[in-house]
Design goal:
The complex is a heterotetramer of chains A (632), B (486), C (118) and D (101). Chain A contains 25 helices and 2 strands. Chain A has 632 residues and is mainly alpha-helical. The N and C termini of chain A lie far apart (67 Å). Chain B is mainly α and 486 residues long. Chain B has one domain. Chain B has 19 helices and 2 strands. Chain B has helices spanning 14-32, 40-58, 74-100, 106-124, 128-146, 153-183, 190-199, 201-223, 231-238, 241-265, 271-294, 299-320, 323-351, 366-369, 371-385, 391-405, 409-435, 449-467, 470-479; strands at 63-65, 70-72. In chain B, strand 1 and strand 2 form a beta hairpin. In chain B, helix 16 (391-405) packs antiparallel against helix 17. Chain C is an all-alpha fold and 118 residues long. Chain C has 2 domains: 1-30; 57-118, Methane Monooxygenase Hydroxylase, Chain G, domain 1 (Up-down Bundle). Helix content of chain C is 69%, strand content 0%. Chain C has 4 helices and no strands. The longest helix of chain C is centred in the C-terminal third of the chain and has 28 residues, at 84-111. Chain C starts with 5 loop residues before the first helix and ends in a 7-residue tail after the last helix. The relative contact order of chain C is 0.05. The chains are: A mainly alpha (632), B mainly alpha (486), C mainly alpha (118), D mainly alpha (101). Chains in contact: A-B, A-D, B-C, B-D, C-D. The interface between B and D is large, with 42 and 46 residues.
């Protein structure tokens, strides 16, 4: 079965071809069936291969399947080949599984969209490239997938191209990703130039001969990481992701939360052998990851658009994953990648279900009290929120805790501190979103309010499956108990470990768990305090200003001070970061480079005056220069 | 006085003779018989096919013929095949387009065949005279073809600009050859030049360098390298679209064939002198082509700038001057032939009514009205942009690998940066087709069988050659063995 | 030797000097009076019609082009003629092919009707 | 008395430069074509000079082909001038300015 691994990406490709060429002529149901069905086939095949792989003795792992030699250049060749090892299998499972669920969801969600076949065409193409990316056995094929998913992401962000903001967002994602891709390409060139091969296993084997901290490897890993910051939306290239929410919600769930944006993390983990040799690069990765985690989390607090909240949370969680990789806990990074794929896909799909219920509204200020109207969505959303907040026994708890644990054990108190603060903020703003959407008074537009409805089964069933995964997904990596961490056991052969091998006392681990649970609980309580109790506050405040000396209201006066001193500065600070740094500095740099080229272009074309003799003069000048250079 | 007549074999120039005789036949039949003839395209295609068969039949030979004036080797043969492919695809594109302009005449096909003969001469020449003759046979035919729409002011202007500047540049090339003749002490055989030039180096080195400079100018003009590129946008825009396609691929291929042959065979000893020069030219060419293409709104003009940029990429391979570089020149030219002719095929289909729809915004919403056509154009745009898994990507990959292998890291980096810039304007066409509503109803497009077949074939080939580059790589590797210096 | 050409130079000098002085003298000494009769190009004969810068019919250009193209091929006949005997039948066959190609050109031109004046 | 090679070359270069300058500054297309002819013939002089100096025949051979090609080029050029004159009624290069930018 393993030798058929190449079929995994071929199924979506076939779906792409059928829907792309005949989609307009086929009935909608068939288009949807094909679109989702091919992914289902891929998933089934992946599961079959996974089961077979488990039976393989350790000696015959990993398996490399070379379909044929793609590019040969001198001694060096790039095969179309797949590397079947624990890491790629986990990625394949996550990608094909989550994609399958989201495809089913999309059949319901996009049902009334006129571009239905086009949507599935792009989506299938995306899955094709994503599977190529994670299945590849060499850098070049990975790059093919890397470019391909970027292209599909661009196409899908701008899917509703009639909206100016959507096509602008697509353009922004495209330009930002180009910068990252350039870094990736340069890194790849550097590796090729150094090792003369691009095959993962060969490169990693050859890299072993270099000393730790060697300049070439540090440079290559840093360049690759530039690529990762673009694709995985890290500082400073994160700005495209919040804007990418202009795309349809299933796209946000699939591409901009569960799969594509994690490609950077996957790549860093895949190159763990290289990163292990470059401590400096690891420090950069960890620092960028930590900064992104907290920076994005603070910005998540100031958002009112539910998808933007989730987008900043995605950026923040990706930061966690890089933080994990940076401190050498690659397994934890991939673990978090997996659980994050479950619960974040669920959150986005839930958000889609909510907006489906309230006629496309995304502003949380115009929601509220929806819990009884859309019970399935509410419950699944709550489960995902508990998971992301890191509450036992939900999936996010295990993975997030493992990251923080590793950061601490490694002696990186700084990273640990930032991670913990970010965890607090995450719990806070995620529950803020829950309270604003599902609890309290209904602020829904009265015209919409009377037909708020639960989504059809086609949409809720994937929600329930993902919710199930978000609950149990973490148990594959159960800590403390010896042999409980099946995930780590399985994944370790793909990963080059970094850092301390010593095992800290169990008490520390349990204590840390309790601590981070407490942090999350405080975050939840803060949200509860501010958003469940505060709806009454405006009335009390009005009283207070009329009778300012009344001691009864002193309590609330203190609250007010607290609000002004603590909450408001944080909020306005994050708004400031968001509007100033994000929009002006980073966007400015991106747009600046694009407009510089456009300006050059518009002026250089004026050289073509249309006058023959000017052209002849150019030739003569050219002759002068060429002759002058060669003789001079 | 006795003369020994050198022995020769007509077989070794069989493909030339076939094409030339075919062209002469077309001219005679066209001139001497009455009535409208519709069989010329088929006849030309048959002639081209025959020439291709002859070429394949010759494959493997390695010698010279006609008193060492002509190389009979695989490098030439591979170029023959690429040139024949270019000519055949152009002819497939031409018929309905010419009919629209009322210009479906026998001369058109005869001239394409003559031009192809000239190009083959350039690819096989072993002596400067042959290069010059081939260049001029090709150029004169193409000058006429560029001005083929005699009643159209744009076509006139394009042809005249091309002719005057082309002749101007030829004069420089010729002057270079004259100096080379002097520097080498009275010989212009490519294989002798290398030795003679190095033997006489100290005394005549300035003369040699001057000659190299002037040859760079002459070839640079034909391949549209900056700053000798100024004619390209104007001529490509004004010439009949099918001829623009032909010029972009075949003329460029032939010029690179001669360029590579002369520089790899005759001037390897002067690589230190010319590599920096071509380095600068390559970077300038890529950059200017890509940057200015962004501001273009006429699709033909945009593709003209794109063709300048592509010339820059191939120059990178020339600078690398290693085996992989030579292979990548061949591979890239094949890929470029496929993707560029395909793109022009779409342009012809969309343009209609005597080229009324050449603005890039005429492509808005094309995907909704003609999904197949838009998909084809998207393939060509991705290929031109160098996106995997198309032939364009593999070609760029070979070129930049060759540069890296030869130690020109920065050149490769600049090339990669350039191809990133180029994605912007290629993708814009795709975006217009897929993500914009149509500006106005495009109306029906007449899908004539030949043009449709050409577009489909090139699209499929662009992808297939990209996915399976190995067989052509082997052929090319086999054919560049003739360069001892690489 | 160049010295042999001195008389020619002398002669040229005299010619130029003489003509120059005559024109100059008549310009200086002569009396100028314009009459309509005197200003017409020819004092006797036909009165001129139209502009002197008359546009020639394009036929002249076409014929001129043919002349250039066919005439220039004659240069290949000269060296061939010089060693005609040495080349023998091979040379003859070669030149026959060359001339045949020219004839094809002529036939084409003729068939296209480019040689007819009207 | 044999003329030294340098004389040929000097004449050739001067003539070539004059031709090139002519192409750059004359407005009449016909004269531009003539200037190009002048450049080609300047090259011919160089070839003849070298052929004479080395007593090698290649140079002279080259001249023949250059002359032939030059004639063909001029014939095409003349035809284009006629076509342009019919369409635009001008023989001046700076009137040919539809295609630009």
């Amino acid at each position: 079965m393993i030798q058929y691994v190449w079929l995994i990406p071929v199924f979506p490709l076939m779906g792409f071809l059928i829907n792309g060429l005949y989609g307009k002529r086929l009935p909608k149901n068939l288009v949807g069936t094909i679109g989702a069905g091919v992914i289902g086939l891929s998933f089934a095949l992946t599961v079959a291969i996974f089961l077979e792989f488990l039976k393989l003795p350790a000696a015959s792992r990993p398996v490399e399947i070379v379909v044929y030699n793609w590019i040969a250049a001198g001694k060096f060749s790039v095969p179309i080949g797949f590397l079947v090892d624990p890491l790629s299998l986990i990625m394949l499972l996550v990608v094909s599984g989550v994609s399958f669920l989201i495809h089913i969801y999309s059949v319901g969600y996009m049902h009334d969209d006129p571009g239905f076949p086009r949507f599935f065409t792009y989506l299938n193409l995306f899955v094709f490239f994503m599977l190529i990316l994670v299945g590849a056995n060499n850098f070049l094929m990975m790059f093919v997938g890397w470019e391909g998913v970027g292209l599909c992401s661009y196409l899908l962000i701008g899917y509703w191209y009639e909206k100016q903001s959507a096509s602008d967002a697509g353009k922004k994602a495209f330009v930002v990703n180009r910068i990252g891709d350039f870094g990736f390409l340069l890194g790849m060139f550097l590796l090729f130039w150094t090792f003369g091969t691009l095959n993962f296993r060969e490169v990693f084997a050859l890299a072993g001969r270099y000393p730790v901290g060697s300049g070439i490897i540090t440079a290559a890993t840093l360049l690759l990481f530039v690529g990762a910051t673009g694709k995985s939306a890290q500082i400073p290239l994160y700005t495209w992701l919040p804007d990418a929410m202009e795309g349809p919600t299933p796209v946000s769930a699939l591409i901009h939360a569960a799969t594509m944006v994690t490609a950077g993390v996957y790549m860093v983990a895949r190159c763990s052998a290289l990163y292990a040799l470059a401590p400096f690069s690891l420090t950069v990765v960890a620092t960028i990851g930590a900064l992104t985690a907290i920076f994005a989390a603070t910005m998540g607090m100031a958002q009112f658009d539910i998808k933007r909240v989730l987008a900043y949370s995605t950026v923040s969680q990706l930061g966690y994953m890089f933080l994990a990789c940076g401190v050498g806990a690659f397994v934890a990074g991939i673990f978090h990648l997996m659980t994050h794929a479950f619960f974040k896909a669920l959150l986005f799909l839930g958000a889609g279900s909510v907006s489906h219920a309230v006629s496309g509204e995304l502003d949380m200020r115009r929601m509220g009290g929806l819990k009884d109207h859309i019970p399935i969505t509410y419950r699944t959303f709550l489960i995902a929120t508990l998971a992301i907040a890191g509450i036992f026994p939900f999936a996010g708890f295990f993975s997030k805790d493992e990251i923080l644990f590793h950061a601490l054990v490694d002696g990186n108190y700084f990273y640990w501190g930032i991670g913990t603060v970010a965890a607090f903020i995450t719990a806070f703003y995620m529950f803020r979103a829950v309270y604003m959407v599902f609890f309290g008074e209904s602020r829904v537009d009265p015209h919409v309010a009377h037909h708020v409805h639960e989504s059809p089964p086609l949409m809720t069933v994937p929600l329930m499956i993902l919710a199930f995964l978000s609950i149990v997904g973490g148990f594959v990596g159960f800590p403390i108990i010896e042999g409980g961490h099946k995930f780590k056991e399985f994944l370790s052969p793909s990963i080059t470990p970094v850092g301390h091998g010593g095992h800290p006392p169990v008490s520390l681990e349990i204590g840390l768990m309790a601590f981070s649970m407490a942090v999350a609980a405080i975050g939840i309580y803060t949200a509860y305090k501010l958003y469940m109790l505060r709806p009454d506050l405006p009335g009390w405040l009005a009283e207070k200003f009329r009778v300012p000396y009344d001691l009864i209201y002193n309590k609330y006066y203190v609250d007010q001070i607290y609000d002004t001193i603590v909450v408001e500065p944080i909020k306005s600070g994050s708004t400031l970061l968001w509007t100033q740094v994000d929009d002006k500095v980073v966007d400015g740099a991106v747009n600046g480079s694009a407009s510089t080229v456009a300006w050059l272009s518009a002026h250089l074309r004026r050289l073509e005056t249309g006058f023959l003799q000017n052209y002849a003069l150019a030739i003569v000048l050219g002759v002068t220069l060429v002759v002058g250079y060669l003789l001079g | 006085m006795t003369l020994t007549i050198p022995t020769f074999s007509l077989i070794s120039i069989g493909p030339w003779l076939t094409l030339a005789l075919g062209a002469i036949l077309i001219l005679l039949v066209d001139a001497l018989s009455k009535g409208r003839k519709t069989y010329f395209p088929y006849f030309s295609l048959a002639v081209l096919a025959l020439a291709a068969f002859q070429t394949i039949d010759l494959w493997g030979a390695q010698s010279t013929d006609f008193a060492r004036m002509v190389y009979v080797d695989n490098f030439a043969f591979l170029f023959y095949l690429i040139l024949i492919l270019g000519a055949a695809l152009t002819i497939l594109l031409s018929r309905p387009y010419l009919e629209e302009w009322g210009k479906d005449m026998g001369e058109y096909y005869a001239l394409i065949l003559f031009a192809t003969v000239g190009m083959m001469m350039m690819a096989a020449s072993a002596h400067m005279i042959m290069i010059f003759l081939g260049l001029e046979v090709m150029s004169i035919a193409v000058y006429v073809l560029a001005g083929f729409f005699r009643e159209d002011a744009r076509s006139n202007e394009a042809a005249l600009k091309y002719l005057v500047l082309g002749a101007f540049a030829s004069a420089f090339l010729l002057f270079g050859m004259a100096f080379l003749y002097g520097a080498a002490g009275g010989s212009l055989y490519l294989d002798e030049l290398a030795k003679r030039l190095t033997d006489a180096a100290t005394l005549t080195k300035p003369l040699t360098l001057l000659a190299i400079a002037l040859l760079v100018v002459g070839f640079g003009f034909k391949v549209a390298a900056v700053p000798f590129h100024m004619w390209t946008p104007d001529v490509y825009e004004g010439a009949p679209t099918s001829i623009t396609a032909y010029m972009a691929v075949a003329v460029k291929a032939a010029a690179f064939a001669a360029f590579a042959r002369v520089f790899f065979l005759a001037f390897p000893a002067f690589h230190v002198n010319w590599h920096m020069l071509l380095w600068v030219l390559a970077v300038a060419t890529m950059t200017l082509g890509n940057v200015v293409a962004i501001a273009q709104t006429n699709i033909k003009r945009m593709l003209a700038y794109s063709s300048i940029a592509h010339a820059g990429y191939i120059l990178v391979a020339l600078v690398a001057a290693n085996q992989l570089g030579a292979v990548s020149i061949l591979y890239y030219l094949l890929a470029y032939t496929l993707m560029n002719i395909g793109a022009f095929g779409v342009v012809i289909l969309v343009a209609r009514k005597k080229d009324s729809y050449l603005n890039i915004y005429d492509y808005s919403g094309l995907a909704y009205q003609h999904p197949g056509l838009a998909a084809g154009m998207a393939v060509f745009m991705f290929a031109l942009a160098g996106m995997p898994p198309t032939a364009g990507f593999v070609g760029k990959f070979y070129i930049f690998s060759a540069a890296v292998q030869a130690g020109y890291i920065w050149l490769a980096i600049l090339g990669v940066m350039n191809s990133l810039v180029s994605v912007y304007y290629y993708l814009r066409i795709t975006v217009l087709m897929y993500m914009r509503p149509a500006e106005a109803d495009l109306g029906p497009i007449a899908f004539t069988p030949a043009v449709t077949a050409c577009v489909i074939a090139t699209a499929v080939a662009t992808v297939l050659v990209g996915i399976f580059p190995g067989w052509f790589y082997d052929l090319a590797m086999n054919s560049v063995k003739i360069f001892p210096s690489l | 030797m160049l010295i042999n050409y001195v008389p020619v130079l002398l002669y040229m000098g005299i010619v130029v000097g003489l003509i120059g002085s005559i024109v100059l003298l008549s310009e200086l000494l002569g009396k100028k009076r314009h009459t309509p009769q005197k200003d017409i190009p020819y004092e006797c004969g036909m009165d001129p019609i139209g502009d002197a810068r008359y546009r020639y019919t394009v036929r002249f250009y076409v014929i001129a082009m043919f002349f250039i193209v066919f005439d220039i091929e004659a240069i290949f006949l000269y060296p061939w003629g010089v060693i005609f005997k040495d080349l023998g039948w091979f040379g003859f066959a070669e030149m026959a092919i060359f001339v045949f190609v020219l004839v094809v050109g002529l036939a084409y031109v003729w068939g296209k009707g480019a040689l007819e004046w009207e | 008395m044999a003329v030294p090679l340098s004389y040929y070359l000097a004449l050739s270069v001067v003539l070539f430069a004059l031709g090139a300058i002519g192409v750059l500054i004359r407005r009449n297309i016909l004269i531009i074509l003539m200037c190009i002819e002048m450049m080609l013939n300047a090259v011919n002089i160089a070839f003849i000079g070298f052929a004479n100096a080395f007593q090698a025949i290649d140079g002279q051979m080259f001249v023949f082909f250059v002359m032939t090609v030059a004639a063909a080029e001029v014939a095409v050029g003349l035809a284009l001038v006629v076509a342009i004159f019919r369409n635009r009624a001008t023989v001046y290069v700076d009137d040919l300015n539809i295609l630009k930018w």
